[in-house]
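Hi F.,

I've been meaning to write this up properly since the lab meeting, where we talked about keeping a consistent format for the predictions we share between groups. The idea is simple: the sequence comes first, exactly as it goes in, then the structure tokens exactly as they come out, then a line or two of notes. No screenshots and no reformatting. I'm using this chain as the first example so we have something concrete to point to.
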Amino acid sequence: MTIWVWIPISLSLVSLIGTWSVSSGSSTPENSLFSAVISAGAFLFLVFSIFHHAHIMERNANQSLLSRIALVFGVVASMGAFGAGNCNPGYLTFLHHLAAAISFICICFYTVLLTALTGKSTLTGFERYLYFMRIASSVFQVILTIGYTIMYAQSNYEAMHFSAVFEWMLSVNLELFELSFVVEFSFFHSWMLSNLLGQREELKPLILSMS
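Output, unedited:
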């Protein structure tokens, strides 16, 4: 086990804390806590996306296109979450909802793409076990995202209640999905980040000597 496993663990834990912030941070002092937690989660999700892409580029460069597409969705999802966390729904309702919708939709695509990459790539040797678990998780994420979108668009109390339930289930499912990447990150090494600079062979010795 390496220090890098704390990236998915921390991301999952921060997401769990964010799940229990009630009212989406619309009142004081809860709004400060909500913004801090969601901002931290968005940053960790961005780091997670970048590091996972670097891992794919090192071990399965033939899947670089699919990994780049996934990275785009991961980055946009992170930006959407940051926007939702820092737009108080009590004052910036439209921007909060727009950013949250972008984040949820991009996360849905991101989970599907990462599941596809799990089936196409060999990073750990445990893919045959992880793949089927992530298929179930990504299917669940798609169904819940559709249900959440439908219910959220309604204005009656029952639909709003169900949308809150869907949102909670989405968050829990995502947390478990993220936590499963402890396996991949236990095989991650710092020199893999040099793939993002396009100077892999030249920088590897330097990064290895510093790590």
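Notes:
Confidence is low (pLDDT under 50) at residues 206-211.
Residues 194 and 201 are 8 Å apart (CA to CA).

If this format works for you, I'll send the rest the same way.

G.
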